[in-house]
Amino acid sequence: MRHPHPPSPERSAELRRRFAEEARSERPDLAGLCLLVGAQADGTLDDAGLDAAQMELDRLAGQLPFRPGSPEAWAAAVRDLLGERCGFHGVAADYQRLESSLLHEVLRRRRGLPIMLSVVWLEVARRAGAPVYGVALPGHFVIGFGPETGPGPGSQEGRVLADPFDGGRVLSGNDAEVLVAGATGAGLRASMLEPAAPLDVVARVLNNIRAWAAARPERSDVGLWAIELALLLPAHAARLRYERARLLVQRGEFTTGAGELEAYAEVVAAVDETVAEQVRGEARAARAMLN
Fold first, then answer.
1. Which of 62, 79, 258, 282 has the smallest set of CB atoms within 10 Å of its CB?
2. How many helices (H) and strands (E) does the chain have?
3. What pTM value is reported for the model?
C-alpha cells in the first residue's frame, strides 16, 4: 500500500463504532462495510476518501446500459464494462497483497482477490438495477445474475454465474464444478450456489485478512484488528475470542491475553471441560511469561 500506517486510536474507535452500527442495521451496506475495513487498514483513508470510493461505484454504474435485459445480457454488459473497458481482474500475485482485500485499493488498482472484485461487480451492477448476488464457492467467490432462487431446490434455471477474478468470464457447463474441485477436491453441492448475505461476505473478507496476517507474524497488528472487527458482526464464531486472546499473548500483552483465555475457558467448560482445562493451561503459561 502507498500509505500503510494505521489510523489513530481515536479514528480507529470511531471506525469500529460505525462498522458495528452498519453491521446491525436492517439492510447492511456491503460497500460501506468493506470501505470501513479499508479505513481500519489505511490511516490515510478519511471520510472524503470513503465518499469518493462510493462515488466511483456510482460513476461506474452510470456507464452500464439501461436495463440490458436477460441475466445473460446483464452479465455480458458488466463484463464488457468492468472486465474489458476498465480492466478489473485478478492474478495469482494478488493473494500476497493486503490491499487486494481492501475495496478502496481494488478500485484504485483494479486488481484484487476474487471476493473483493466480486464486491465491485455486485455494487456496480446493483446500482444499475441488475438482479445480482454473490456466490461463496469454497475457495473462489463468484457472482450470479438472475433470480436468487430457481423454481425448484438447487435449480439454476434463469441464472448465470460470472467470475470477476477472470475479468467477468461467464461460467458455463461444469466451470463451477471445476472451481470447487480445484479449491477443495470435493464436488459441487447445490447449497454452495445459494446467495451470500452481505454480512457473510464481510466475514469472509475479514477471514482472508486474518489469513494474510497469520502468514506474517510481524503483521499481527493487522490480524488483531481483523479479528476485532469480525467480533463486531452480529453473528460470529465463539472461537474468534480464543484466537484474539492467543494473538494478544503473541504480541506480548500477557496479562490481557491470559484474562481473555480464562474467560473463554469458562464459556467452553459448559460443553467440554477437557478443552477448557487446556485453555486454562495456556492462560497460566501466559501469566508465567511475566516472571
1. 62
2. 12, 5
3. 0.91
